[in-house]
Amino acid sequence: MMNSSNSLFVARNVVLVEDNPAFRLLIGEAIRHIGLKGQIMECATGTAVMDLLEQPQTRLDLALVDLGLPDMGGIEVIQAIRRRFSEIPILVISVLSSERSVLTAIRAGASGYILKGESAQAIGQAILEVLQGNYPISPSLARTLFKLAGAPTGKSAISFSLSPRELETLQSIARGNSYEQTAVVMGIGVSTVQSNIRNLYRKLEVRSQVQAVTKARDAGLI
């Protein structure tokens, strides 16, 4: 079992959106591997997710979503989950690896993107990371993620009103550093890094670290 903070072992309500029974078993194995406790609600179709979201008593702490569903697009599912639960992590686990699929999922509100070819152990690690506030991406998708999506906007750090320290924080997380590593590199506390990240989200008008890095690269900030 992987090491993790005690907070991860609080019971979680997880929705697993996946139509392939074999892969649902693999995800179950990944969840058992990390010792995550709680209720797993399995939905084989997008319609089933929509029905679940319409129930007032539904409470979710984590969503694991496949993009290739039989009845509707996974992006629509991500958007619906994000509308109902604005803060929970949403991890895409998909066979789709195109630039369009990755960027569209991120813009819809995904917090991470893992390919189905990864092992149960790697998927479990990604689930841990997303629960810890990080934004896991399969290594093979890193280049795709950081490619510019369309023409640069020409905006600079000045036009976004980023302070030098906020820009330095952004550059650090874009290199893949955690909040703790960023704090060490910058010689500041983790709480200050978190404050800088909140300011970056507000100024860049994004809701996740992946979205912040993508928008910053589009704007030529990093």
In short:
The chain is built from ten helices and five strands, in the order βαβαβαβαβαααααα. It is α/β, with parallel strands linked by helices and about 220 residues long. Helix 4 links the parallel strand 4 (about 90-95) and strand 5.
Task: Note down, in words, how this protein is organized.
The chain is an alpha/beta fold and 222 residues long. 47% of the residues lie in helices and 11% in strands. It is built from ten helices and five strands. It has a five-stranded parallel sheet with strand order 2-1-3-4-5, with helices on both faces. α7 (164-174) packs across α9 (190-204). The longest helix has 15 residues, at 190-204.
Per DSSP E runs of 2 or more residues, the count of β-strands stands at 5
Shape: globular
Structural class from helices and strands?
Answer: alpha/beta
Which regions are unreliable across 5 or more consecutive residues at pLDDT < 50? 1-6, 148-159
Q: Could you give the order of strands across the largest sheet?
A: 2-1-3-4-5
**Largest sheet descriptor:** 5 strands, parallel
Helix proportion: 40-55%
What value does the average pLDDT take?
A: 83
**Quaternary arrangement of the chains shown?**
single chain
* Radius of gyration, whole Å: 17 Å
Distance between the termini: 37 Å
Strand content: 5-15%
Number of helices: 10
Order of helices and strands: EHEHEHEHEHHHHHH
